[in-house]
Amino acid sequence: MPASRNGLQYTLTKPDNADAMAPTLVFLHGLGSSQADWAFQLAHFQSRYPCLVVDLPSHGKSTIDPDFSLPRCTTAIKALFDETGVQHPVLVGASMGE
Predict the structure, then answer these.
(1) Are 25 and 50 in contact (CB under 8 A)?
(2) Average confidence (pLDDT) over 12-31
(3) CATH class for domain 2-93?
């Protein structure tokens, strides 16, 4: 279900049969993209694993951050992990152009 935290848009899914220690698959899009890039992967994995897809700051439906930087993205993702209880993330990403 789509949600928002401090302007950061995300979707967090948890299958009913997920093991409490199962890793959460965290899908991070590339520069200029959005969480929509991961629709096929989310459809495939969400029935077996907890999944988190995020619109990084200044991307997709998230709030524009005039001071956008990769370190600020890292801080936003870490805060989202803390708020949503993600303890065992497995990061899946696409290039941020570097």
Answers:
(1) yes
(2) 86
(3) alpha beta
